[in-house]
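A quick aside before the break. I want you to see a complete sequence-to-structure record at least once, exactly as it would be stored in a machine-readable document. Don't worry about memorizing anything.
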Amino acid sequence: MQRHVTVIGGGVIGLASAHALVRAGHCVTLIDAHAEVASETSHANGGQLSYRYVAPLADSGVPRQAIKWLLAGNEAPLKLRPNLDPAQWRWMARFVAACNHHTHQASAAQMLSLALHSQAIMSEWRTRDALGDFAWQQRGKLVIHRDPKSLDKAAAAHVAPQDQQVLDARQCIALEPSLAHQQAHLSGGIFSASDETADCHAFCQALERKLQASGRYTRIANTRVAALSARNGHIEQLELRHLDGRRERHVVEEVVIAAGNHAAELVRPLGIHLPLQPLKGYSLTLALTADTPETAAPRISVTDSARKVVYADLESSASRQLRVAAMVDIGQRERDSFHPELDEQRIAALRKLASDTFPAAGDFAQSTPWAGLRPSTPKGPPILGRPRQANSPDNLWLNVGHGSLGFTLACASGDLIARAISREALPSSLSDSLPDALAARPGR
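That is the input. The structure line, written in tokens, reads:
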């Protein structure tokens, strides 16, 4: 049965949800706080579709390692900025509680199942829906290790032996010659041949073009949604606040929250408390030219395990760029959460890390910086489906909390939400890893 679904959020999660819903035969209205899609966290993320590297941040050794990182200055992968917000401390307590082997393994297995489904859905959309060029490449991903113990631990834990190869330093450089400058510092790496890269912003634009051509999609731009309210267990309408000062009521049938960090504020009046924390990350985009030496910048996706920096070659028919992304800042307050501020010290540190690793790629001082707030759950897996709280509205769906894996998990998350709203069977391959909240309400 065709439904009219209102999706709140114009990033990759909201657009993937909208696309999946339209493909399923529904009509969609998407409400976006910005003039252009993908203007927040989806705008300049790491560009990696790391389907086999989706282990959550919470792990048994992280609290101890975090103490070292906190003393490492602006190049540290993680920086904690404590504030007086009780929600931050509740999230951190739950995060620390999740830093154990059992929880990590369970969360990693759930996220891996979701990621592999996402890769299948991405392939289907890319080949069948004529999305156009969004710099998609399947050149594989190489995770380099600078310490032998780190390499041995990673080799023992790799999740897809049929797809992943353990390489020594010489083999890493043969595979990716731009790493030659790092030869003295490399112990080896793990290469996953089937992992991918793409430009998330261009992907979002491609989805919206396809949606607009469908005739079943409307986007309301420059508009924010007031906190939600329900009547008799049902959301009847939304209060829209346009940036030009206008206000209006928008009647709804089904509502999907895909608003990232803003989701918690939207649903709080309904008695729904989402364990989300905005983890701030940074990226650089360096334009590569025809004059860039062939072995100066990586052609395959590279992750520097020790420094927690990712590098992705985003090559389209129109341009070639190197995307560099890194760092997690927890607790930094933003004057405007819709437009996070750049921390110039963190950006300077990231420029130095990139220059040290790939010195011939170009002048990283001229690269374009970016910062985004990644909506993260304490354990790692996103929140998908109906709210768990009793008496929550019967037409409300959640698709939030993807952390740094929004692009990687977006297609699967959108597909599963669309299936649930359509009351279709969910993939049997995911039956052991999906939350009960994805089950459709009976009798609707």
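Two observations worth writing down. The mean pLDDT is 92. Residues 175 and 332 are 39 Å apart (CA to CA). We'll return to this after the break.
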